[in-house]
Amino acid sequence: MTIRTRFAPSPTGLLHIGGARTALFNFLFARHHGGQFLLRIEDTDRARSTEAAIAVILEGLAWLGLDPDEPPLFQSTRAARHAEVANALLAAGHAYRCYASALELREMREQALKEGRPPRYDGRWRDRDPAEAPPGIAPAIRLKAPREGETVIEDLVQGPVRVANAELDDMIILRSDGTPTYLHAVVVDDHDMAITHVIRGDDHLTNTFRQAQIYQAMGWERPRFAHIPLIHGADGAKLSKRHGAVSVLEFREQGFLPEALCNYLLRLGWGHGDAEIVSRADAIRLFDLDGVGRGAARMDYAKLTHLNAVWLRAADDARLTAEVMARLAGVPGLRLDDVARARILALMPPLKERARTLVELADSAAFLAREPPLPLSEKARALLDPAARALLRDLAAVLAETAFTPDALAAALRAFAEARGKKLGEVAQPLRAALTGATTSPPIDATLAVLGRAAALARIAAILAAPDATSPDAT
Ligand code: GLU
Q1: Structural domains of the chain sorted by starting position, each given as residue range(s) with its CATH number in brackets
Q2: Quick check: CB of 399 below 6 Å from ligand 1?
Q3: pLDDT at position 84
């Protein structure tokens, strides 16, 4: 048997990271077992489904590297098949036409609530002769659900879960307007797509009992089910916008790497020993459903940020350079030419050591794409007092004579500091402020070497030419 899983989002908004984790688990499970991972867009609710939401799902999945093995299936294209199966159930006596009016249904509900019973359809058309059908009313089709016994799901995460059939009423499978209900459409599609394992959020668990009844009525083999706990916020409530970012594309925007987000989502609710950093290849090798926990997972943004820093350090410098260039594209005052690109690439190893997100990385690299005079941070401005300027003037003379290699520059700076009885930092800090406009940067010798002599001296000259920004009347 070929394992086939699917991710079946309803395109009514963003791609929530809970959905992304469901997609990831389905993807990993299929890959681990040499099977296929499919995507079904559940767009039957035409009023709420939008093209934009579909695009967001496809974009998010592509960014996460969770591409399906077949073109996505759009549930809305399958209405005729859904109706066909409903009619087959009708013909086989497993379903019936229900002519109850909206008013009757409302009364039924209100009566049940008054008597403290769960609001259920009372089965009034279940055994009634259709000849009694009132004229002019289009019927809905309801499943003739078993009334005795129980429905048991051997859930691969939750274990056996059961419900007495008497608890479930005869659900509508085809509405009076001929459209399928969600529960029915999912069963027909999962069957036709030959899905072997349905891995989804545990908010769908109660749906599964009803879906199991449709499988049974059709005589179809049920897929195996695995209901995974939802993601909660730190306060234990279901994760929502008020906890922080929840949309996959928002995490991308905030500078997270897809491999870091996948690693984090994997570890959220799945474990393999103590392994924290798990690559895609290892995840495929190790993932199985028995490692999925039953308790709700709690989103920890700090932990995600930590993982992101780890993945940033491991990421390819050319790729990070392209990311940084793209992020800097909207920043005014930058010259994003080949010179800037080469500088950013050359300095990427120390830059990526210091950043936790691509946003921080781009911020810390922006100085490499500037022309003097550079904007100064407040701390850098305060540092560049008259004494520091005098020091920079002398230092510029030394730099004009020094070979621009990190080693030669480091030696020259050490010698310069020593000759003045200063610590290296006392020389490096004003120099750093002049070269970068900030008080933190990669090592000063590497920064100097990457900028090159002409650019470094031009930056120092611009500081010396500018009015003393530390004097009280400077603005
Ligand atoms: N379309 C459903 C949702 O977005 C998922 C259905 C399923 O996985 O069976 O919640």
Answers
A1: 78-228 (3.40.50.620), 378-465 (1.10.10.350)
A2: no
A3: 98
